[in-house]
Write a structure and sequence with these properties.
The protein is of the alpha+beta class. It has 15 helices and nine strands. A five-stranded antiparallel sheet has the order 2-3-9-6-7, with no helix packed on it. The chain is elongated, with a radius of gyration of 38 Å.
């Protein structure tokens, strides 16, 4: 009746609540949306929600999972020295890695704008992101190898060191017992019998392989046969070993080689009065010596072991070394994100500052950085979340003996649960702790994204 009266009065009919086409369309849209979202929600529940809830529940049981222990796992977690070290290392990661990455990304993003081949440079820096953490860990494990023959970093360090400091040619050389040379407490060798001007002394050493002799080494026999003048002390340092056998110990045979480039000193009353370096045939001489008795000494520097470089993966440097590998991977990520924010900056503000006489440093410090603050914050927080979960690099790069010195919460959780500890209750408690630490950063990032969208 009402619908008829409204129709006669010229008004459109009022649809009933159950037959409103707009409501039916909205209801249909919700059903379609839920149909498409349901598989994703199912996977999210199976792969994220259920494991989280299971881990929370498992953290209240013992290692076997049969006995309820309440908060004992959480108490034990903060009593275990290894866990405390993991918390400390994680704190170092959270403070150092995101700060360095954000700073490097900012500097590189600003500098790349001034490079002619900016796109190629960005591609070069971003390429490590395509390398898996497993592959990157293996690469840096080899790069950090302590053997300079394998580790590229130590090879470079040793090359630079040897270029400035030099190195001993005979680290394994030694004197035969009872052949006139005695070893000092400092590693040097000295003659047991006194020598005077006009004498010729022979200093025989062993422990040097023939193939390790310098290329210009020559036989020492002729040098040993030369007579010294009245005011000089002459001698020869030689390899007291004849290839193929034969020869006599303590005597320079015809085929025995001299040891060149060896430092020799003449010592009197505990004081070095003269020094010389051996020639290609191992010969040396001290001229214009005053009459008297002298001791001939071979300083310890002749036998110093070669410089082996830096123990990158030792207990003191293993965490900074792994952070260095992390920087190599993620610097391109930070640079690209910050570069995108930099490209969106209002250029009129920068040009106005230049026209007012501001230099590039002032523009960077007072205009660029403040305008990029939201982007820098998002990048920093994202990296904080990422470093809290770092596992692959630490587990692969750190050798077994220093694994505990480099461990972080993620690796400690795995080691306690599956890596020999077999205590999944304590491991679940560590997982819950890691989740609680990550959640605030995730909430902060979500709010920043929502704020930027508004």
């Amino acid at each position: 009746m009402t619908a008829t009266l409204l129709k006669e009065a010229g008004h459109p009919p009022v649809a009933s609540a159950g037959h409103d086409p707009r409501r039916r369309a909205r209801r249909r849209a919700r059903v379609v949306a839920l149909t498409f979202v349901f598989p994703a929600l199912l996977l999210l529940g199976a792969l994220v929600v259920y494991p989280v809830l299971f881990s929370v529940g498992r953290s209240f049981f013992d290692a076997s999972g049969d006995r309820f222990v309440g908060g004992d796992n959480y108490t034990e977690m903060f009593r275990d020295p290894a866990t405390l070290k993991a918390v400390r290392n994680t704190a170092v990661w959270v403070v150092v890695a995101p700060t360095l990455l954000t700073g490097l990304g900012l500097v590189l993003a600003v500098l790349v704008e001034k490079v002619r081949w900016a796109t190629a440079f960005k591609l070069l820096l971003f390429m490590p992101m395509a390398v898996s953490f497993l592959a990157a860990g293996i690469i840096f494990r080899l790069a950090y190898d302590e053997d300079p023959e394998k580790g590229v970093l130590n090879a470079a360090v040793v090359s630079v060191h040897d270029a400035f400091q030099g190195t001993s040619s005979y680290p394994n050389a030694r004197a035969r017992e009872g052949q006139g040379l005695a070893r000092g407490a400092d590693g040097s060798y000295r003659t047991t019998a006194a020598a005077s001007p006009g004498d010729t002394v022979g200093l025989g050493l062993v422990g040097v392989r023939a193939e390790d002799l310098p290329a210009g080494a020559r036989p020492a026999h002729a040098a040993a046969a030369r007579k010294a003048s009245a005011d000089e002390l002459r001698g020869v340092v030689y390899l007291d070993f004849t290839r193929g056998g034969g020869g006599a110990q303590g005597r320079v045979d015809r085929t025995e080689s001299g040891l060149p480039q060896m430092k020799v000193e003449a010592v009197r009353d505990g004081r070095t009065v003269a020094s010389a370096a051996t020639a290609a045939d191992g010969s040396f001489r001290f001229q214009d010596l005053e009459p008297g008795s002298y001791t001939v000494r071979l300083p310890a520097s002749n036998f110093a072991p070669p410089y082996e470089g830096i123990s990158w993966l030792g207990p003191a440097l293993v965490t900074p070394a792994i952070i260095g590998a992390y920087l190599w991977i993620w610097t391109g990520f930070a640079m690209v994100l910050i570069g995108a924010g930099l490209a969106a900056l209002p250029r009129d503000a920068l040009e106005a500052a230049r026209m007012d006489g501001a230099n590039e440093w002032q523009i960077f410090r007072r205009i660029t950085v403040p305008l990029l603050a939201p982007v820098l914050t998002v990048v920093f927080v994202t990296l904080v979340i990422n470093v809290m979960k770092v596992f692959d690099l630490v587990y692969i790069i750190a050798p077994g003996p220093v694994q505990e010195d480099a461990t972080v919460l993620a690796t400690q959780m795995w080691l306690v649960s599956f890596g020999g500890g077999n205590n999944q209750g304590l491991g679940s408690a560590l997982g819950v702790l890691l989740l609680l630490l990550v959640i605030p950063a995730m909430v902060f990032n979500v709010r920043r994204f929502r704020g930027s969208q508004r």
